[in-house]
Amino acid sequence: MTTDELEQLLAQQPVSLLHRLARGRVHRHFRAGKRRLIELLLQHSSQNLAGLESDLQTLLAERQALPQRPKTPARRKEELAPVHPKRHPPPTTGGESETSGPAVSLANWLEGIGVPPPQPFVPDPWQVEALAALAEGDVVVSVPTGSGKTYVAVEAARRAMEDNRTVIYTSPLKALSNTKFTEFSRLFGTEKVGILTGDRQENGQAPLLIMTTEILRNLLYDAASGEIDVRLDTLGLVILDESQYLADPERGVVWEETIIFCPSQARLLLLSASIGNPQDIADWLSSIRTTTCRLIRHNKRTVPLRAGYLHPNGKLVPLFKTAAIPYGHPNQLHPEAKRLFMQYEEDTMPSGRPRR
Amino acid sequence: MPPSIHPVDLIDALRQKHLTPAIVFLTSRRACDEAMESFDHASVVLPPARQEAIDAVLQQVIAQYPSVADHPLIPTVRRIGVAAHHAGHLPSWKIAVEELMRQGCLDAVFATTTLAAGVDFPARTVVITQSSIRKARDFTDLTIGEVQQIAGRAGRRGKDQVGFAVVAPSPYIDLSVLTKGLTGHPEPIDSQFTITYPMVLNLLKAHPLEQIQSILAKSFAQFQLNRRAELLERKLDALHVQMEPFGPRICTDWITQWQTFDQARRQRPQRHQPRHESPELTARFHFMTPGRVVGLARGRGVVLRQYRSKGQRHPMISVLRPNGSVTECPAAAVVEIFDRVFDCEETASFPWCSAASFDELCYQLTELPPRLPVLPILVSHESAPLPDTVVQSLGDFPCPTCPSRPACQKDFATAHRLRQEQHRHVKSIQALRASLWHRFQERVDVLQKFGYLTPSAQLTAEGEWARLIRIDHSLLITELIRAEAFSGVEPAVLTGVLASIAHDDDRPGAFPRISPGLSSLLGQVRKLAESLSPYEEPPLLRADIAAIAERWVADPNLTWIGLCRMTTMAEGDLYRLLARTLEFLSQIHALHATHPGLADTASRAIALIRRGVLEELP
Ligand SMILES: Nc1ncnc2c1ncn2[C@@H]1O[C@H](COP(=O)(O)OP(=O)(O)OP(=O)(O)O)[C@@H](O)[C@H]1O
Ligand SMILES: [Mg+2]
Question: Of A118, A192, A291, B235, which one has the fewest beta carbons inside 10 Å?
């Protein structure tokens, strides 16, 4: 087949097939419209047109074997059939796009929506564990967003203050500091809580001080060089909220400095959203501080999460085949979501120009 | 079909399915504002009871932050129960929106993802319309961690049994980034430790130079570097084992012997055209081996082979780019060498690796995380070519009579490769272990050159006060102070200069004219910044930014609204600019012991800035 013939053949195919063909061949093929996709496919395989052609033929043959592919009944039957006729996926398709089992319906996906019955507040086991561990040494907490890290911070602060120790709570953003200032003032009373910013202090002698991490780093600089802030002697606990900022390209260094210079008698409590290597952080702390650092982590969300797809025409469908998010299986898309999204791509990129 | 769902229809759809309250993350502030405007003609109006609830909450917020009272969006928010929340707004307005959301008064908030990490209000549903965000000046795909941070806002403990993350596509979206983000495991984080001038001064103030290395060793950066070094040490051990069969023969160090001949042979024909190659490039070229991931000016690639160009003998590499193309480029064009090497089965002809490797590399290249550790490379300046006399004296190959020759000849290629690998590992390990210390010393050199440190690395009188300036562009600021650029200036002019140093956004806008005094001072600042550019990245130093900050201080009767009218800058940006300038001023104020006049000017400027909305928040 000549390049032109191949190009024509490709042009006759639906864009979904082209996307399958493009997997592993074209980077970010999802971004490309049909014409661009063909261009990229031919460009990529210019050295190996035969390979492209044979993969295309395989896909076409596969299609032929299932003439009514888009119609659900035929497919169902095939999928439910006990003996799976062995298909020959092209070598380039990766992942487990087609696993067995019917896809969830919208009604099932929406099931359970609403307000739960009120329940008395009982701390979660990981919260209790984190607080207990803090009695022994430093603690790193890495749990999903919205799990209740604030409770750990508040309780830990309360306990330290009951011991007549001062507490410093830092957040990465001034806005967040302000929110926490209001929140903590409400909880502990205004006389117990102060806030420090670059140019202002409010209640700077309070036992619980809120500041941004930069301000704390500066305090620690001053303490180290002898201009001793007496209050660092009574410092019992330093809470670094949102400590995944450690990886911020510009500001991350401030978190490291703060941790390195943190007085040894003060406990460190690092609160972080889910990150990939919290154990590394804990190991690091253990290696440089006087106590061993405990890691409290879990990945399970307290409120289960579901993912959906909303088409521009207002049609809402589940994003994945299962109601719950299929962790570890990004390709288990709901067939309806997949179809709508491909249609979306085809409709929105008629010019075929790459988007970026 | 429209490229994305109309905001009114979106909110309708969410309401119908009881998916409210929702946070709708949009690509830009502009998109958020336009979404709000699109409700102007919408007929749906909140029932009076809900409007009153909104009023009640707003009254509470206004009691604390009066500037909220005149916010032009209040009527819209009341009418439709939807608000916008982004960095273009004043902090007080954002607090109001957050409070409304927390009290359950709103059905939806349009927000930008830049705030995803800082926003402290959850919702039942999160709508995601994009898969990349603007970072610095470029769009980058969201990381898994970021997708989860965004989606994680869905589902409030105690208020929801289930949370929903809904993808509503807009142009530019890459669904696979989102599905991977939702189902994946967050990326490991890497240290971003850098050594700054204030850090050096403050460390040396508190500790003698001998102790610094052990302090740097406490960083997470060093912790991670050590891990990588340990990995290489294990590889090195394995190499030792592999090298066993190539131990001493007739010549104890036959590999070096053969290598010298090899080098001499290759050197001879080119002795006449000396190469002007920097030692940096030579050292880096060493690491550009097949399979190595490198960063180029535009994106990344995997090295497929290295070679020297014909004629000029420039170091060159063939690179596989993420789009699957193979490009030839000079090694000098490589901006970054990453600590990541993929397996690559080399072949002798285009595309320089086996088809399987090629596909695999293409795939791996697209799967790379946005941030990769960079390989620290030490430059040795002594890798001089063999002296001519040595080359001459070598004459021809003297081995023909040696009994070991066939064995040596056969093994040389392998042994040489293994040994090179060994050398490379040893060098890498050295670099990994010592790179922070080297960087520290580089900074010390600069500070000594400028007279902040003595030759024995103690703080000079200048260093003693300079260490109190702990902000970006600290070197420029301390040098300006030493050059007495600020002596006798008005608070407004000092504010203007500091604002233009503090501001790092290049978003264009319309601004008032600058005063001649400030303008000429800025010229001086620019010159100095330019001359410092080898040591510190110069700030943007925008005159328009300086002018607007100057106005605010120069005219105490100017109202916030009046100031906002002078510029097209969003009021949130204006607020942040002045807040950051305040921070800079307060650092200058800290110099009152050594620079009383300047500190006084700074404190007068601080007092003048702090009025109106700039007084509301601590
Ligand atoms: N043990 C618990 N039982 C019930 N609700 C809880 C519990 N712990 C915390 N909560 C509630 O969970 C909600 C979220 O908590 P919080 O803001 O502390 O989360 P977070 O982990 O700090 O999240 P983020 O990552 O957004 O900072 C709060 O409303 C809090 O009252
Ligand atoms: Mg929190």
Answer: A118
